[in-house]
Amino acid sequence: PCLMRLCFPLAEKTGKVLGEFCRCYREQYGVALFNNVRYEIEGNGGPQAQLLHRKVPLEDHVIYSGNLFQYIEENKKWRNRFCVVPHNYGLVLYENKLAYERDLPPRVLVNSAGYKILTSVDQYLELVSSSLPGVTPKSGHSPILKCPTDFPLILWHPYARHYYFCVMTGKEQEKWRAVFQDCIRHCNNGISEDSKVEAPAFTDAVRMYRQSKEQYGTWDMLCGNETQVLSNLVMEELLPELRTTIGPRLKGKAQERQRTWIQISDAVYRIVYEQTKAQYDAMMAKCEQERPQMESTIRTDMDQIITSKEHLASKIRAFVLPKAEVCVRNHVQPYISSILEALMTPTSQGFAEVREVFFKEVTDMNMNVVNEGGMEKLVEYMEKLSQLAFHPVKMQSCYEKMDQLKLEGLQQRFDVSSTSVFKQRAQIHMRQQMDDAIYTFETLLHQELGKLQSKDDLCKSIQRILERVLKKYDYDSSTVRKKFFREALLQITIPFLLKKLAPTCKGELAKFQELIFEDFASFILVENTYEEVVLQSVMKDIMQAVKEAAVQRKHNLYRDSMVMHNSDPNLHLLGEGIPIDWGEEYSGQTEAEPAADKRRRAKQVVSVIQDEEGFLPYEVGAEALLQPGSPEPQELEDPDPGAPPSSPDGVAEIREALAKESLGDGTQAEERLTNAVLASPVPGADVPPEAKVPHAVAASPTPRAETPSPCAGTACHWPSDKETGEEVGPPAGECSPPESVGTTESGEGMQTEF
C-alpha cells in the first residue's frame, strides 16, 4: 500500500532527475561530436598495435554450463537449476539439463551488471542489515537466508533483487565464483567503446550531473548499459527518501521486514528502469535527428570553432592555472609516485601472468601435438586455445593479481570510494591482450601450415611463431599498461582537484560564457574547457611519473622512444581476412555441412563434465522429468506424494542427500566436479576422460581430455540476445512493474525470476 501511494510521486521524481540529466547529455553530445570530427580530420593516434584484434571473439559460443542449486523466494525452497552462460554473458537458468536440451523456456535470466558475488552468508547478512538501518534480527532468531551447504554463491545488488545459489564442494564454488565474476566484469562494461560520440557524451554527462550535486570521485554504480547506469543514478537519489518514508511502516519480524524491503527496492528499480529507458531512447532519437545538421556546421566552421575555443581556453587558463598549479604542487604531486606504484605492481603481475599462461598453453600444445601426431590433434588443440581468453577458470590466476590493489590512505585522501573500477578495467585489458595474442598466433600458424612437410617442421614453426607473438605482446602490453596508468591517475586526481578548486573558481566561470559565439555554443562549453585547463595542470607530472617508471624497467615497460614500426607489414592484412574455423576447415569433410548441424556444433564449445561414478543430488530425479508435450510443473505447487522422486529442495533434504553421497563415496565426493568446466571444442568427438598421450614428455603434462558435449546430435536451446531479461508479475498490493525488459548482447535489461 505504501508503494501504491508513492507510484505517482515516484514517476515525478524520476522524471525530474532524468530531465536534469538529459540537459547535461544534450550539452555534452555537441562537444563529443565536435571532438570526434576534429579527431577524424587532424588525426592523433598513438603507437600502432603489433597484435591483431579479433572482430567477433565469441559469436554463437557458450561460455559455461552446469548444475547448481537456486533458492526460490516464492516458496522458500532450494531447487536444482542447469545454468548456461551464452556469449553475451547473461546467466540463463533452466529447470534442468534436459529442459535445456529439449528447448524448453528458461526459468530465470540474469544480467549481472552492478552485482557483487558473495561466498559467505554472513557477509550477505551484513550487507542486508546495512541497507535497512535499525532493522537487525535478534540473536538466536533465524536469519533471512539459510544455506543447505557450506558453499553459497550470492548475487547481491544495492537496488535490484538478489539471487541465491549453492554448490556442494569448495572446488565447485571456486569455479562458479570465477564464472559469475566474469559475467559481472563483462556486463559492467556495457557502454560500447566503439561509439565515439554517444559513449563519451554519456559518461561526461553522468560525471557533470554528479558534480552538480557535489559528488566527485569514482562511482561504483557506473555499471552496465546506459539505461542501467541511469537507473542507478536515479536510485542513488530516490533510495534514501524511499527508505525514510517506507522503512518505519514495515511490519513483522526483522527478517520479514528485510525481505519486504528487498522486494520493494526491486519493484521500484523496475519502474524506474522502464521510465528511464523510454525517456533516454526518446532523447537519443532526437539527438540522432539533429546530428547531420550539427556535423555539417562543424565541418564548415571547424577553423572558427577551434579559434574560438582556444581564445576561451587562454582566458580561463590565465584565471585558473595559477591556483591549480599551487593545488597540484601541495596536494597532488607528492602522492603521484605512491599511487602509480600501487597501481603498477598488481597490474604488471597480472599481465606477466597472462604472458605465462599463454606461453604454457602453446608450449604444452606443441609437445602434445608432436607426441600424438596428425593435423587432427592440432585442430583440436587450436580450437581450445582460440577460446583461452574467455575461459573463466584458466584466466582466474591473471585476474586475481589485481586483488592486491590497495590505495590505503590515498583512497580516503582522493575520495576514491572503491578500487573495483580500476581492478575491472585492468582485468578487461588482460583478457583483450590474451585474445589478441592468441588470434595473432593462430593467424600466423594458419598461414604457415601449407608450407610444412613434417611434424618436426610443425614443432619448429609453432615455437618460432610463439617467440614472435611474445615480442609483440610485450610491446603492446607495455603500451596498454602505460595508457591505463595515465588514465587511472587522471581519474583519481582530477575529481580531487575540481573539488578543491570549486570554492574559488566554479562561481566565476559564468563570466566567460560571453566569449563564446552563439553559433558555436553547442560545441564549446565553459565547464568542459575549465576541466581541460585543470587537466593540463597535472598532466605534465603524470606523464613524467609514468616515463620515469618505464626508464627504471622495474615493471617491464618499454620507453616511449622505443617504437616498433611495421615489423610484420602484411600481418594486419591477414587479420582482415575471413575468421579461421579450425574444425570446419580441417575436419576432412568433402561435402558442405548442413547449416543446422553447423549451428548446433558451434553452440557446443562449452559443456558439462559428467560424473563418472554416479549422480550427486543435482541429478536426483532427472528420470522423472516431463515428457515432451507434457505441461510444465508449477513452481509453487506442493509435490504429489505418489509422484516419482524429484530434486531435493529443502535444506534438510539436501543435507541428507549430501550425507548419503559422502557415505557412499568417502572422500572422493569432494574431488569430483559435477559442475561445468570447458569441454572439448570438437563436439561429438569420442574422447574418453581417461585418454592419455602415449609418448607425452614428463616436463609438459598433457591437459586432461574432456567429455564431449552431451547435447551432441540434439537440438539444444540457444538463448537469443533477449534471454538476459525476464517477465515477472508484481507482488500483491504493489505497483505493477513493467511486464518485460529485453536484454541485448550489449548487456541491456533487468532480470528477476519468472
Could you explain how this protein is built, in words?
By secondary structure, the chain is α+β, with helices and mostly antiparallel strands. Among the domains are: 159 residues, no CATH class; 108 residues, PH-domain like, CATH 2.30.29. Helix content is 52%, strand content 6%. The strands form 2 sheets. The protein has a 7-stranded antiparallel β-sheet, sandwiched between helices. Strands 8-9 form a two-stranded antiparallel sheet. It is globular. The C terminus is likely disordered. This is NIBL1 protein. Belongs to the Niban family.
List keywords for this structure.
754 residues; alpha+beta; PH-domain like; seven-stranded antiparallel beta sheet; 6% strand; globular
Give a nutshell description of this structure:
The protein is α+β, with helices and mostly antiparallel strands and 754 residues long.
Give Rg in angstroms. Answer: 28 Å
Secondary structure category? alpha+beta
Q: Terminal Cα separation, in Å?
A: 23 Å
Q: Considering DSSP H and I runs of 4 or more, what fraction of the residues is helical?
A: 40-55%
Which spans of ≥5 residues are poorly predicted at pLDDT below 50?
A: 595-616, 620-647, 661-754
| Element-level helix/strand string | HEEEHEEHEEHHHHHHHHHHHHHHEHHE
Form type: globular
**Main β-sheet, spatial strand arrangement:** 4-3-2-1-7-6-5
Please, how many helices?
A: 19
**How much strand content do the residues show?**
5-15%
> How many beta-strand segments?
9
